[in-house]
Amino acid sequence: MGPLLGSGYLLLRDAVSTPRSYLTDSALGLGDAAPRAVPQDALLAVLSPVIDGGLIVKAILLVALWAAGYGAAVLARELLGASIGAQLVAATVALWNPYVTERLAQGHWSLLAGYAALPWVALAAYRIRTDGTAGAWAGVAGCLAAAGLTPTGALLAGITALSLAGRRRLAGVLALLIATSVPWLAATTLSGAASEPSDPAGIAAFAARAEPGLGTLGSLAGLGGIWNSDAVPGSRTTLLALFATVLLLVIVATGVRSVISDGTDRYVRRALVVLAALAILLPALGATPWGMHVLEWLVAHVPGAGLLRDTQKYVALAMPAYALCAAAGCGALARRFSAGQVAAPTDNPPVSKLSPTVTGTVATILISLLALPLLDLAWGVGGAMRPVHYPAGWQQVAGQMAGPGDVAVVPGGMFRKFRYSGKAPVLDPAPRLLPQDVLQTGELPVRGRTVSGEGNRAREVETLLLHGGSAQQLADLGVGWVLLERGTPGPLGESKTALAQLEPMFSDADLTLYRVPGTIQQHEASSTDRTFAIAAHALWVALLIGGPLIATVTRRKRCPAAIRADPTDATGHG
Q: pLDDT tens digits for 435-456?
């Protein structure tokens, strides 16, 4: 994250951070498009008037990356009694891998928050199996809420928790999952997005992609294979990807036997390994012709199944098991090479019996083998994640919007290439920068094809502008403002004819704002819907903050008693 630590904002492909955002209907998930950024957008809208929005995004991303590595280390310590060296190997597997690299380059910072929560969700599920106290359940709630910054993150965490909790606890975990997902579930219901199927063309467009020498299955097993080749680091476009994947899989395979061996927590460890296998196999099957056919049917007939179209996202579910197996592999190798230590790979003697020098050396070698083939990740994915600075015109445009109506934007499309945003296309920042709802079609250009979105009114408005429609037609569709973003590619059509009928309000080298005259037809969400949506977000915040607090307080109250009961355990694995 080095480049991002300076001033400026993250604006890279799907990542859009802004100085300030607003609690519009779209931020609450009540707009035309599916609520894919809920409750993320509402959280930023509430906090950014107090704390700079760009700083919030950087902080969330930094904490998420730290939490991913530390969570993997804690999971290895709790389930395996791993040494510090082995814990660092687990942290490296969780942090320094193609999945993190490609999702950073794609701009999926909030998805990485869900990814980072997975080892903590696994640990929380393990704890409710071992004691089942209110504090343990509160920990599960907090972990699910942290993962639920986006709907996909909630699904990742929910699948993990449900897989590990056991049959007797399924109902409780499912109830907590629904409670922590209520912002986007409520928004989906209230906005009507639940009744609309997704475009089946998205399945082929977002299918996992094969890397050189690996094929699709091998790419996914190496935690790579994102659909967008432009978000793939250079090292994964050569046979170095094969070398790195073989190294990763060998290190993981070395510890599989130890992870699935008998023990008091063997169910959790074995379930994580099975989950990892399915997280690799199913997306690979989803990239086959018949697999894509099945998924196309699902998204065309089952509302909400569009969350499954980017199947490579779900490879994240393999991370906790990979981290555990790598840590166990480090321990197994250290035992094998420790002086005077002759033990079967499944043995797990106390760390104190192993040579610290050998353990540290093995861990250092494994960490180097994991990191060196993927040096592209260093310094913000090779400098791709550099901060940008928005022109002052954006703030002035936002200050001009004092009247009713939504905002339409030209050129058409959702992605831009500004003079200040770099070479990669970026999601239009207007919806986050402006105080009114910005109409977006949701159409995505992917692999030379266009995947349709859910923004029907936005599509109608865009067509009207590109065909030179009248101001009255715009007003009837609820458009009160039109923003012309200069210097970025995109279709303009006959929009000059439409813009000539509007009232110019502001203009500079980058932006021109027009006001639509006449009476604007309102298309806002009802006050009742907004109240329900805000209440749903409030519940999510309560679980996000309250869950960890209750879990921490409860755990601290129990620890002194545990130490008095078994001082040997307290000085052992802690």
A: 999 999 888 888 777 888 777 8
Structure tokens at 240: 């170095």
Distance, in Å, from the CA atom of 558 to the CA atom of 540, rounded to the nearest integer, reads: 27
pLDDT in tens, 136-174: 999 999 999 999 999 999 999 999 999 999 999 999 999
Q: Give the amino acid at 319.
A: M
Confidence of residue 32 (pLDDT cuts 50, 70, 90): confident
CB 189 within 8 A of CB 408: no
CA 161/CA 379 separation, integer angstroms: 33
- Please give the share of the chain, as a percent, with pLDDT higher than 90: 80
Mean pLDDT of the chain: 91
Omega prior to 39 cis, within 30 of 0: yes
What pLDDT band is residue 540 in, cutting at 50, 70 and 90?
Answer: very high
Structure-token pair, residue 353? 């019996």
Q: What average pLDDT does range 275-294 have in this prediction?
A: 97
Q: CA 409, CA 390: separation in Å to the nearest integer?
A: 17
Give the number of C-alpha atoms closer than 13 A to the C-alpha of residue 484, restricted to the C-beta side: 23
Question: Side-chain half-sphere of 187: how many Cα atoms within 13 Å?
Answer: 29
End-to-end Cα, the chain, rounded Å? 32
What is the pLDDT confidence band of residue 348, given thresholds at 50, 70 and 90?
low
| HSE, side-chain direction, 13 A CA sphere, residue 283 | 34
Amino acid code (one letter) for 122: A
Nearest Cα residue to 246 out of 279, 278, 213: 213
Measure the CA–CA gap between 494 and 438, rounded to whole angstroms: 21
Scanning 131-239, the segments in alpha helix (DSSP H) are 134-147, 151-165, 170-180, 182-191, 201-205, 215-221
CA 324/CA 301 separation, integer angstroms: 38
What 3-state class would DSSP assign to 481?
strand
Which among 275, 260, 268 has a CA at the least distance from the CA of 156? 275
> Do 86 and 328 contact (CB within 8 A), yes or no?
yes
Residue 352: exposure state from Cβ atoms within 10 A (0-12, 13-18, ≥19): exposed
Do residues 202 and 196 touch, judged by C-beta distance below 8 A?
A: no
Read off the pTM: 0.93
Strand 479-485, strand 449-451: pairing = unpaired
3-state DSSP assignment of residue 415 = strand
Collect all residues with Cβ–Cβ distance below 8 Å to 233 and sequence separation of at least 6. Answer: 98, 101, 102, 105, 374, 376, 377, 381, 382
Q: What count of other Cβ atoms lies within 10 Å of the Cβ of residue 226? A: 26
Nearest in space to 323 (alpha carbons), one of 92, 98, 117: 92
Compute the distance between CA of residue 158 and CA of residue 457 in angstroms, rounded to an integer: 33
Please report, for the chain, the start and end positions of each structural domain, with discontinuous segments joined by +. Answer: 59-381+542-562, 390-524
CB 403: neighbour CB atoms within 10 A? 12
Q: How far is CA 495 from CA 216, 442, 453, 466, 514, in A?
A: 44, 20, 22, 5, 12
The region, left, alpha or beta by phi > 0 then psi within -120 to 50, assigned to residue 254 is alpha
